[in-house]
């Protein structure tokens, strides 16, 4: 497939090279993958994918579901007769949902998740969600979003899910409150909750909430912090409800986390000396955790192929806190407004690329010969066979990497492939 290469200038406020905008063959997972971490976070929600057997195999393989597990996701299989228009797909979907809710009375929030097959047959899941929600209210709220991989990358599944939740959020009054947006592991959320409490920032709510009956209110007094850089549609939906974004670096590493918390502290009028006193012990502990790994990583070159939309803030972390040299930072979509401060901290020589033409990008990897290449699963083994050291990008989404306590673990994810390479390298005789 021939690709399209377009040079797109970055806003003047961002001091870095122009962006290569590429359109061609892509190597990414679909948005259904987001269910793997969303279903663990939303404790009384269920994700019903309306898709094919391939969709079901993807979810079961990615989640590592054991045979005796009772996960909170499933697939309503679109059969050949549905694709041929020989069956009433809406009627069949109603029957599947009725059976599911009868079997699982603990479900309080049900997502109907669109896929490539359901979109191909133009199955109106929004209509189905509205009809079924009215039928099963008030016990169950039923929403829908698209997890199709036709034109998206996999982290957009979370963005679509949270954006679907925003219209359901209660209306808040004008009182100021903080809303943290983005799915974080419970342990990381608890750490941040304690930090905000120590800083005196209250109330603090989370999207997504752990339970369907605890959805955070939103209104003109809501100030929100993005915990993940890929939540563009969710941010737009929140701002349509009157919320205001707090501009900050993303909480990766000691300095990124400090900046993220500092932005919140400034927005809520926290005294500067109090802020420094509260975060100082954890910030110093994070710096110490990074110090030993910096010795291993400083000066090493890194190349990010587009995958998760985490690439820009992670490249900033590697460059500013560990001394690595980003050669190219590729990302599926570049949200310039949310990433402006991150982009400004990248080394000036860093190449930025948006979108993917995989063959062109692989040619640049081969020409640059980076010490470490961050890429998707489908590219890692072929690159390893060519002698490159790789890191699976998806592991950075599944692992707890936000905050002070995880800074050393985050750096370790990049150091381990290099250590493995050094251990396995056979000296020449």
Q: Could you give a quick summary of the protein structure above?
A:
This protein is of the alpha/beta class and 429 residues long. The protein contains 17 helices and 15 strands. The N terminus is likely disordered.
Task: Describe the fold and architecture.
The protein has a 7-stranded mixed β-sheet with strand order 1-2-13-12-11-14-15, sandwiched between helices. It has a 4-stranded parallel β-sheet with strand order 4-3-5-6, with helices on both faces. Helix 9 links the parallel strand 9 (222-226) and strand 10 (244-245). 46% of the residues are buried. The radius of gyration is 22 Å and the shape is globular. The longest helix has 26 residues, at 272-297. The protein is built from 17 helices and 15 strands. Helix 7 runs parallel beside helix 9 (232-240), helix 10 runs antiparallel to helix 11 (272-297) and helix 11 (272-297) runs parallel beside helix 17. With 429 residues, the chain is an alpha/beta fold. The two termini are 43 Å apart. Helix content is 45%, strand content 17%. Mean pLDDT is 89; it is low at 1-16.
DSSP E strands, number:
15
The multimeric state of the shown protein is: single chain
Mean model confidence by pLDDT: 89
Proportion of residues in helical segments: 40-55%
Number of helices: 17
- Which structural class fits the helix and strand makeup? alpha/beta
- Please report which band the strand proportion falls in: under 5%, 5-15%, 15-25%, 25-35%, 35-45% or over 45%: 15-25%
Low-confidence stretches: 1-16
Spatial ordering of strands, largest sheet: 1-2-13-12-11-14-15
Rg is: 22 Å
């Amino acid at each position: 497939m021939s690709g399209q290469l377009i040079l797109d200038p970055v806003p003047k406020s961002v001091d870095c090279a122009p962006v290569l905008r590429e359109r061609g063959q892509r190597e990414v997972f679909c948005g259904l993958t987001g269910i793997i971490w969303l279903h663990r976070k939303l404790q009384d929600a269920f994700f019903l994918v309306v898709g094919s057997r391939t969709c079901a195999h993807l979810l079961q393989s990615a989640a590592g579901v054991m045979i005796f597990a009772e996960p909170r996701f499933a697939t309503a299989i679109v059969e050949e007769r549905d694709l041929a228009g020989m069956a009433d797909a809406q009627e069949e979907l109603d029957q599947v949902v009725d059976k599911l809710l009868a079997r699982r009375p603990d479900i309080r929030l049900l997502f109907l998740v669109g896929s490539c097959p359901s979109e191909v047959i133009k199955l109106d899941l929004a209509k189905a969600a509205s009809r079924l929600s009215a039928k099963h209210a008030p016990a169950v709220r039923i929403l829908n979003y698209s997890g199709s991989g036709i034109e998206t990358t996999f982290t957009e599944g979370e963005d679509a899910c949270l954006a679907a939740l925003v219209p359901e959020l209660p209306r808040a009054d004008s009182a100021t409150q903080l809303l943290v947006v983005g799915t974080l592991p419970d342990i990381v959320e608890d750490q941040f909750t304690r930090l905000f409490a120590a800083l005196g920032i209250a109330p603090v709510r989370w999207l997504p909430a752990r339970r369907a009956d605890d959805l955070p209110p939103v209104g003109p007094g809501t100030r929100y912090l993005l915990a993940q850089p890929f939540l563009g549609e969710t941010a737009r939906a929140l701002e349509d409800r009157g919320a205001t974004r707090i501009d900050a670096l993303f909480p990766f590493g000691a300095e990124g986390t400090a900046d993220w918390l500092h932005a919140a502290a400034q927005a809520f009028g926290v005294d500067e000396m109090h802020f420094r006193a509260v975060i100082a012990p954890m910030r110093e502990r994070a710096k110490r955790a990074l110090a030993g790994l910096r010795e291993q990583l400083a000066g090493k070159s890194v190349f990010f192929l587009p995958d998760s939309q985490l690439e820009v803030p992670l490249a900033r972390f590697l460059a500013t806190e560990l001394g690595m040299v980003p050669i190219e930072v590729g990302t599926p979509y570049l949200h310039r407004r949310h990433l402006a401060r991150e982009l400004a901290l990248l080394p000036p020589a860093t190449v930025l690329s948006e979108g993917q033409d995989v063959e062109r990008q692989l040619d640049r990897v081969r020409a640059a010969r980076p010490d470490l290449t961050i890429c998707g699963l489908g590219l890692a083994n072929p690159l390893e066979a060519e002698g490159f050291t790789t890191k699976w990008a998806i592991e950075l989404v599944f692992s707890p990497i936000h905050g002070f306590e995880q800074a050393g673990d985050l750096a370790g994810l990049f150091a381990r492939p290099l250590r493995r390479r050094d251990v396995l390298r056979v000296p020449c005789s």
